[in-house]
# Entry
Amino acid sequence: MATIREVARYCDVSVATVSRVFNTPEIVSPETRQRIFDAAAEIGYLPNESARTLATKKSNMVGLIWDTDHRRPGWRHPFLQEILVTLKTALSAHGLHLLMLSHREPYLQAARRHNLDGVVIIDNGSQDPAVLALADAEIPCVALDLRRTGPTCTYVTSDNTGGATLAVQHLIDRGHRRIASITGPLQTAPAAERLTGFRAALAAAGLPIAADHMVESDFYLDGGHTAMLRLLASAPRPTAVFAAGDEMAIGAMRAARQAGLRIPDDIAIVGFDDIELAALVPPGLTTVAQDRAGFGTAAAEALVTMLQNAGQPPAPTVLPTTLIVRGST
Amino acid sequence: MATIREVARYCDVSVATVSRVFNTPEIVSPETRQRIFDAAAEIGYLPNESARTLATKKSNMVGLIWDTDHRRPGWRHPFLQEILVTLKTALSAHGLHLLMLSHREPYLQAARRHNLDGVVIIDNGSQDPAVLALADAEIPCVALDLRRTGPTCTYVTSDNTGGATLAVQHLIDRGHRRIASITGPLQTAPAAERLTGFRAALAAAGLPIAADHMVESDFYLDGGHTAMLRLLASAPRPTAVFAAGDEMAIGAMRAARQAGLRIPDDIAIVGFDDIELAALVPPGLTTVAQDRAGFGTAAAEALVTMLQNAGQPPAPTVLPTTLIVRGST
DNA sequence: GCGGCTGATGTAACCGGTTTCATGCCGTCC
DNA sequence: GGACGGCATGAAACCGGTTACATCAGCCGC
# Structure
């Protein structure tokens, strides 16, 4: 690999000038600039990122944390792939790369060792202290689905409360009065917020909430199934169920069908997330869609803003949610 | 951030000794080692990775390339997430981090600039020249689902041919004689190999292949739907269909159902991949499962092998596939 | 008693960039 | 015609590590 000194020698200029050509080209004379530029292309010179990082203390890399909860190795984000793609695309437009951090080392430590410019956290509500330490440190970070702010920390999340309200309101509009809920793990922010929305909608309509019509589950298919069995055992039975995640909703649908109930006639079901499956499973799952692409782009924007003006972090982004009505209600 | 010189001064030793404590601890006397180690912990010293990389030319980072085809931004790998998780876990066990490369810059160039130790390629058959350049360069790389070898390049793939043979053999065993195929884009290796397996199974059974019973599609749901419509329009109609991907298979099932056909009585369908959906969509999709976790771990192992002994790259890994029989056949 | 070996540590060059500060040149203004 | 300002460039320190080589003490064998 050619070095900056070779280019300098080749062009009979100093290394400083070569460096300037690649960093502040406007301050070097057009002829010199062109000459150096051509020479660099000819001998295949590429600036060494490690050396640049060492000198500038900026690595142009941002850390990515997503599997923060080692207790649940199979944890799946409903649209992680979209987030990664959009995030990567948006960041690379600013010349930033994504470094996936492993939890074998404290995140903060890894971030410092690598001179990371910032960090993006995709949390699942595990309250991992290693993650929280990051949010409190000096390093710019933006959290997804984790409402955490700080002097260098902001977040992006969906309007979970509003979405849930929308869903439940829809059930009420359909004439339902006994509406149950299957929530996700309540220590996670999205689950808690969706429950809040559920409550708000019922309260606004003056409807009661039966204690045995609220069951906490785990966002997974089997969990939804089990939860539904419990709901079906209650008396009087709910006529509609709001499941705070589509996987759970689909599990619940199976349980209902196995119990001989027709959907939506005997029991209506609405989910949350609008996963691919929701449109495919008969009779189609009414659900609340999130702005999938919005997460990545908003996170990248927020991060870039923080990197440019080191002052206050930008305000949190709350992405809108929309109700998608299908056959299950 | 504390530097190595501060630790050295603090302990009244030379920086060389401190460096040795972190790299070759066995050659420094136990007392000194412990003293330095304690001091480092006390003043919060962390070795700067950029400086280490600069000096050693090893970055402990491996590049990850997956969206090689910019023409299909929404490209989805059926189990990208599993691959990422397992790959990351396996690599971090060796102290390696994963850097996601963007296609805004030639991959090879980015790899050199960052002193990447190696690269993992998740290809979708795009034949991207930037990817191929990587495989031909001096940098260790392992390709997934792309049969590419070289002096520093090996690959990991599923036994697509064998899996397809398994699937078609299964249809033949069920008594089918007119078996059609819906393939993926044939320029991708998995699609081509699955077609080979399809042909091999029919040939072994002495069955003919009708030209209008082989349609090329795109691995997506709608593509499978369209392909099935064409198959249903042929005469005589096939009694069974091998779709080279589950999404296509599910699209095909819908088309069949919409045409009033019963599955599996009127037409049998078998897919490939065993995506989550396969078990959920009634009556359950018979399919060929791949070793999802195997990709990541095998890739990591192959890469680490290449990093350790710089000689010949390890032989390619071909992961076994297994048939999973469900209601659709 | 001395040469030589071994093990622990220090010295200093080096990795490949960036950036401060100095220098020299030229045109301008009075 | 000389002071001055601005522009292009160069010299050299610096970023924070690694490592080849030198040094030195202590021990061994003869």
In short: Residues 292-308 of chain A form the longest helix (17 residues). Chain A touches chain B through 45 residues (CB under 8 Å).
